[in-house]
């Protein structure tokens, strides 16, 4: 039986910034429209965090029963390590998705009914990333999904439920967060190229190859700083987002240096922290203005 610490590690806390950052950025964008509603922001945070925990447990379950995690380098895999049964991990994933669904339904009832459809699409995307007969994460579409759901949908959704509209500021915030969020996955998949190749998991990193994946990660962590410059058109205070640039540079350092295996783990954590710092700085700038 897995311990509480193993369950927490299995939830992959290093990915939590992927859930928190878009809500912060979306709330900042809502504040730019003078429409912050804190209880809705809190519910959006519950939805986002519950979804990422759900997708992490769902990935653990699906990869574990396929044998993909048998020789994995990285965080705790509950099923792959046999610390927990597949059934218990699947149940944990479903429970997390249910919590996201309840919080999302409350937001939909208070905002717009069609948000229910987006919520169902989010849960389906989370499950079929590595689940089902033809998981799209095994075909190189994981980064696209992360960009869409933890970038565009999460940021613009957070802005919409509070301001009941979205604008170009929210869109550019969503693009920046989506790039960072995809960068976390790119760093993860770069690390796993050897084992994914053997197991037949054709991630985008496997398809691009080692060298081009490293270039891709670099591009993804640079784009948010460029967007900070674009957001000057809204307010010069948006330059506060550049506070994340040194951390993004540090996150990319092991990628540039050609590191592999466990040496790439800091790239995952630091890319996520850079995303969180960019969102905090940008949201603060928008709110100050």
TrEMBL record:
The chain crosses the membrane at residues 36-58, 89-106, 112-129, 141-162, 168-187, 215-243, 263-288. Its EC number is 2.5.1.74. It catalyses: an all-trans-polyprenyl diphosphate + 1,4-dihydroxy-2-naphthoate + H(+) = a 2-demethylmenaquinol + CO2 + diphosphate. Pfam families: UbiA. Pathway: Quinol/quinone metabolism; menaquinone biosynthesis; menaquinol from 1,4-dihydroxy-2-naphthoate: step 1/2. One of its GO terms (molecular function) is 1,4-dihydroxy-2-naphthoate polyprenyltransferase activity. The keyword tRNA processing does not apply. The keyword Membrane applies. Keywords: Cell membrane, Membrane, Menaquinone biosynthesis, Transferase, Transmembrane, Transmembrane helix. It is found in: Cell membrane; Membrane. It is a multi-pass membrane protein. NCBIfam families: menA, PRK06080.1-3. Conversion of 1,4-dihydroxy-2-naphthoate (DHNA) to demethylmenaquinone (DMK). Belongs to the MenA family. Type 1 subfamily. This is 1,4-dihydroxy-2-naphthoate octaprenyltransferase. It comes from Williamsia marianensis.
């Amino acid at each position: 039986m897995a311990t509480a610490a193993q369950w927490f590690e299995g939830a992959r806390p290093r990915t939590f910034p992927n859930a928190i950052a878009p809500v912060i950025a979306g709330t900042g964008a809502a504040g730019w429209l003078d429409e912050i509603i804190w209880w809705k922001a809190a519910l959006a945070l519950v939805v986002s965090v519950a979804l990422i925990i759900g997708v992490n447990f769902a990935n653990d379950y699906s990869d574990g029963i396929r044998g993909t995690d048998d020789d994995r380098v990285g965080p705790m895999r509950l099923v792959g390590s046999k610390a927990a049964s597949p059934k218990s991990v699947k149940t944990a994933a479903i429970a997390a998705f249910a919590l996201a669904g309840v919080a999302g339904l409350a937001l939909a009832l208070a905002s717009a009914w069609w948000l229910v459809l987006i919520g169902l699409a989010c849960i389906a995307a989370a499950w079929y990333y590595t689940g089902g007969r033809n998981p799209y994460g095994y075909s190189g579409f994981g980064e696209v999904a992360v960009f869409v759901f933890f970038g565009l949908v999460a940021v613009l959704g957070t802005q919409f439920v509070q301001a009941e509209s979205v604008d170009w500021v929210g869109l550019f915030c969503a693009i920046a967060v989506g790039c960072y969020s995809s960068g976390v996955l790119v760093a993860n998949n770069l690390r796993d190229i050897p084992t994914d190749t053997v197991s037949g998991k054709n991630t985008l990193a496997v398809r691009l190859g080692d060298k081009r994946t490293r270039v891709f990660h670099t591009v993804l962590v640079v784009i948010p700083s460029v967007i900070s410059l674009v957001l000057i058109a809204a307010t010069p205070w948006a330059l506060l987002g550049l506070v994340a640039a040194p951390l993004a540079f540090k996150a990319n350092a092991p990628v540039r240096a050609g590191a592999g295996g466990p040496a790439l783990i800091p790239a995952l954590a630091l890319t996520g922290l850079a995303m969180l710092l960019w969102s905090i700085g940008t949201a603060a700038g928008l709110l100050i203005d």
